[in-house]
């Protein structure tokens, strides 16, 4: 491989990805999956609502994290809803591999007038805390 100067000097490669980066995150697509998550656990944050459920043993993709996103018309017009979902997708992409759990389904629900405009770093922290609280309570059997 050629270096930046065009010679055959070695090129620095990025460090190997951390184990969390190798966890596969897939999208929820079926309405039934969204409904099952809605009937399970919830964590409300100022920026969004996190719905989550552990998949059953007989369900496929046991070793993967699955995530879905929704923003109803209560969130605003099409532009607001799309912006809210883009932001939710990005915080999930950044946080779920490290803080989510394989074998779980998560749904992030946008909130009216907040998800599209809330500080992005704050929303990332809210997702991190919501996931930690959710899994802490799951371990304790609550």
Automatic annotation (TrEMBL):
Record InterPro entries: Ribosomal_Su5_D2-typ_SF, Ribsml_uS5_D2-typ_fold_subgr, RNase_P, RNase_P_CS
SUPFAM superfamilies for this protein: Ribosomal protein S5 domain 2-like
Catalytic activity reported: Endonucleolytic cleavage of RNA, removing 5'-extranucleotides from tRNA precursor
UniProt xrefs under PROSITE patterns: RIBONUCLEASE_P (PS00648)
EC assignment: 3.1.26.5
UniProt cross-references to HAMAP family, sorted A to Z: RNase_P
Binding partners and assembly: Consists of a catalytic RNA component (M1 or rnpB) and a protein subunit.
Name of the protein described by the UniProt record: Ribonuclease P protein component
Gene name of the encoded protein: rnpA
